[in-house]
Amino acid sequence: MIAGYYRLKDILQQIDRNKTTLIRWEEAGLIPKALRDSRGWRCYSKEQVDEIIRRVQDTNYFHETVGDQINFEGHVLDSHPNHA
Asked: What's the predicted TM-score (pTM) here?
């Protein structure tokens, strides 16, 4: 563990979601990508934890979005994909 950083479980306790959900949000770009320690475990800075919690609260766990969703990097995610 990197000193001064938070682990995945520290965030999960604060947002009441499971590990799979948080990883899915990260992969979708909805939350910042975690750094990795020497074991490959995710670790987050205090700023990242605060940002994740803020985004979760502001969007009611990403359920309340207006129009297209914007991911953490500012890219628009198509909320209405065309199914061929």
From this structure: 0.69
